[in-house]
Design goal:
- This protein has helices at about 15-20, 40-45, 55-60, 65-80, 90-105, 110, 165-190, 195-200, 270-275, 330-340, and strands at about 55, 80-85, 125, 140-150, 205-215, 225-230, 235-240, 245-250, 255, 265-270, 285-290, 295-305, 310, 330.
- The longest helix has 27 residues, at about 165-190.
- Helix 4 crosses helix 7 (about 165-190), helix 5 (about 90-105) packs across helix 7 (about 165-190) and helix 7 (about 165-190) packs antiparallel against helix 8 (about 195-200).
- The protein is an alpha+beta fold.
- The chain contains 10 helices and 14 strands.
- The strands form 3 sheets. The chain has an 8-stranded mixed sheet with strand order 1-2-10-7-12-5-4-3.
- The chain has a single domain, classed as Jelly Rolls (Sandwich), CATH 2.60.120.
- Belongs to the iron/ascorbate-dependent oxidoreductase family.
- InterPro entries: DIOX_N (IPR026992), IPNS-like_FE2OG_OXY (IPR044861), IPNS-like_sf (IPR027443), Oxoglu/Fe-dep_dioxygenase_dom (IPR005123), Plant_2OG-oxidoreductases (IPR050295).
- Pfam families: 2OG-FeII_Oxy (PF03171), DIOX_N (PF14226).
């Protein structure tokens, strides 16, 4: 299918360029007074729980697998998020990705304009989920593109990226598909799903990358780097390019800052995986805040079911005691619906619910 049909976003100004002008105040369109304030005092931060840390080496070790798998299972049920250490992706590749993405955002505007979003599309430089001229904007820029399957790549984006970034992202894309599949198979094992169900749904899945650039802001408490949302896809693997705090997740009504661990990925459950697991694992609202002193850069790699496939609870998780809680839908239609709306909390997964049974706060 033609990837351009998945979503579109209105063209908006480049926040990085705006920030270079060192404005004393934030333009009105970026003021987000509707949001919970992002600032928590330091004493409170110190007392907040941190998302679980899972060790991939233990997950693949015969002696330690059961304990670590149980820990990951609980993290997915209780948090929807965990940090993954010893993930097996080569450090030198990860460092090349970090350097390349930093250079991409540092390109002069005349170079960046080659990769800018086109009308009626969402891929490229810009912002996502902008559906009206009156809508409030994020204090951040993105570079977004479909990376797998290869035939879905836009010819003016991935294939035209400067070298060596193109080769680096090619290798990174393949490594992260492998890692996503390993994690999904381990989750299936924890849930006692049939492994073939994961294989059939995800093996030929699609992958998207969203690179995020959050420049320093003169009034960080009045803006949002990325609005509160849950991810639509199956699994997100987030690499913090700059180890600057900014990601927050919603847990028991509080916004908890995630303190990035060196050489770790932040993994989270998306709406599709909540549906596949029949609500056993739940996607969690999260957002990005900004600060007044440092830029923050991250890259989220999203892994989704096959676009032509069907999304719905895995048959092995549907029983008379646990009937299907979500209806079935073609994956591409689900994504189209998600990408054509404003980003608002977990509201989109509600369209799939058969019964509004357990929409408790994460």
């Amino acid at each position: 299918m033609e990837p351009a049909t998945l979503g579109k976003s209105l063209l908006v100004p480049c926040v990085q360029e705006l920030a270079k002008e060192s404005p004393a105040t934030v333009p009105t369109r970026y003021l987000r007074l509707d949001q919970d304030p992002p600032i928590i005092n330091n004493n409170e931060v110190a007392s907040l729980p941190q998302i679980p840390v899972i060790d991939m080496r233990r997950l693949v070790s015969e002696e330690q697998m059961d304990l670590e798998l149980d820990k990951m299972d609980r993290a997915c049920k209780e948090w929807g998020f965990f940090q993954l250490i010893n993930h097996g992706v080569d450090d030198s590749l990860v460092n090349k990705v970090k350097e390349g993405i930093q250079e991409l955002f540092n390109l002069p505007m005349e170079e960046k304009s080659k990769y800018w979003q086109r009308p009626e599309e969402m891929e490229g430089f810009g912002q996502a989920f902008v559906v009206s001229e009156e809508q409030k904007l994020d204090w951040g820029d993105i570079f977004y593109m479909i990376t797998l399957p290869k035939h879905a790549r836009k010819p003016h984006l991935f294939p035209m990226l400067p070298q060596p970034l193109r080769d680096t992202l090619e290798a990174y894309s393949a490594e992260l598909k492998n890692l996503a599949m390993k994690i999904l198979y381990l989750m299936a094992k924890a849930l006692r799903m049939k492994p073939d169900e994961i294989k059939d749904m995800f093996e030929e899945g699609s992958q998207m990358m969203r690179m995020n650039y959050y420049p320093p802001c003169p009034q960080p408490e009045l803006v949002m780097g990325l609005n509160s949302h849950s991810d639509a896809i199956g699994l997100t693997i987030l690499l913090q390019v700059s180890e600057v705090e900014g990601l927050q997740i919603r847990k028991s009504g509080k916004w908890i800052p995630v303190q990035p661990l060196p050489n770790a990925f932040v993994i989270n459950i998306g709406d599709m995986l909540e549906i596949v697991t029949n609500g056993i694992y739940r996607s969690t609202e999260h957002r990005a805040t900004v600060n007044s002193e440092k830029e923050r850069i991250s890259v989220a790699t999203f892994y989704s079911l096959n676009l032509d496939g069907e999304l719905g609870p895995a048959p092995s998780l549907v029983t008379p005691e646990t009937p299907a809680a979500y209806r079935r839908m073609i994956v591409a239609d689900f994504l189209k619906g998600f990408l054509s709306r404003k980003l608002v909390g977990k509201s989109y997964v509600d369209v799939m619910r058969i019964q509004n049974g357990g929409d408790k706060d994460n």
